[in-house]
Amino acid sequence: MKKYWRCFVCGDIHFGVKAPEVCPTCLVKNAYVEISSDEAERTTRPTRTTMTRTEFPAAIAKFAEKNEFQVNPDAARVGMLLDGMFANEQNHGFKYCPCRLRTKDFNEDLKLICPCNFIIHETYKGKEDGECWCGLFIRRKK
Amino acid sequence: MSKLIMFHARECPHCKAMMPHVDRLEKEENVKFERLEVWHDEKNADLMRSYRPVIAPKCGGQLRTPTFFCPETSDVLCGEVAYDKLREWALKQG
Questions:
Q1: Contacts B40 to A, Cβ<8 Å
Q2: What ipTM, to 2 d.p.?
Q3: Coil, helix or strand at residue B64
Q4: Of A26, A61, B59, B78, whose CA is between 20 and 30 Å from A101?
């Protein structure tokens, strides 16, 4: 079961089954303590930032740049997918993949938030021309 | 002819790519799809979720769009496929 963890040094919040051994922000070892979801919500609220549709492409491009995949160069396709993700965020709370339907099981649906863990999906894993379910990310050409 | 459903999403590129195939199939064969959008219509979404035990195992464990579904036979075809494959699937439903 996933829980909330807070780094006692820098205050970073982590949501996961286990706490990170090393805090990725301040690099302190064994710094995470388990906290309640209420505390996690309260402590993240003041610094909560919103990401606009125009800012999101840069965020996913940065995410992809050090990985074996890239954002699909098909701008029309990406635009359509971003429309869907931001509509889903507005209507259903998160940037759910527009090509899969949420189940209404919160933990299950976390797997649908973009970017998802598509490297294990049949559309990507072991495929030279692999892509995520919706085609937002494609394997980088060698 | 069995009732055929196409679960699709407005901003899904795979669904967009399949629409001309569905149009062509309806024109050329005696088939009709009920096209149900699932991200902007909760009633349609709930209907698709109600078929999750049947659909998900055949679609990578998830509710993907587009999904073509025949409630009478419980047969499922999901994702972006060639016209011939869609045609073969639809005609097989009887």
A1: 87, 91
A2: 0.93
A3: strand
A4: A61
